[in-house]
Amino acid sequence: MTSTIVTDPFLQKVLETSTQTREQCTQLIDFAEANAVSTLHPTPYDVQLELSKRQKLLYSYLAQLRGLNRNAILQVRGTKQSTAEARQEIDRLHLQLQNLYYEERHLRGEIAACESYDHKYQQLPLIPVEEFLQLHPEHAPDDEKPLMFARISHELSEREALEQARQGLLKKKQSLIADNKKRKDDLASLDKDLETFIDAAKPIQKIFEKQY
d(Cα 143, Cα 148) in Å, to the nearest integer? Predict the structure, then answer.
């Protein structure tokens, strides 16, 4: 039954040697009892010879057991060392896996935040896609992102053109304001000159009124 449970070749060898040692010890005791071996009475030579032979065989089994026991201890130590190293490696890999889980969760959160972020470009008053494609049909095969970049670039160029036109109109307005101010100043100077002329002509007017 034990042999079916223990499958390791080394342990099977230990069990086999242990069984042989136990059987040899039992046979040695049975032989001694059967031949009435005692320290009180002399033992026949042939019995002593057989007894010595059986003892040597028992000592041989015991020596094998001690050697197997020593090897077993060394193997256990090696197994413990290997197990400790394997456990350390497993712990290291587990820590790396946990770090990867944390990083994955963090990246998923960042991606979700980016996807839900209210980007400013989404609030730009861009022209409809259909109208843009009518103006620029070369962008019809573009995906969503390149198409959005093209629409934003179009909006930028349109706004730059409008800004240039606004600046031109502003300069024209400032020029007209300056011209109007000059004309107002000229009219004011003319009014002043007319008043001076009228004031200067009053004595002459009085002379004509006296004579006529």
Answer: 9
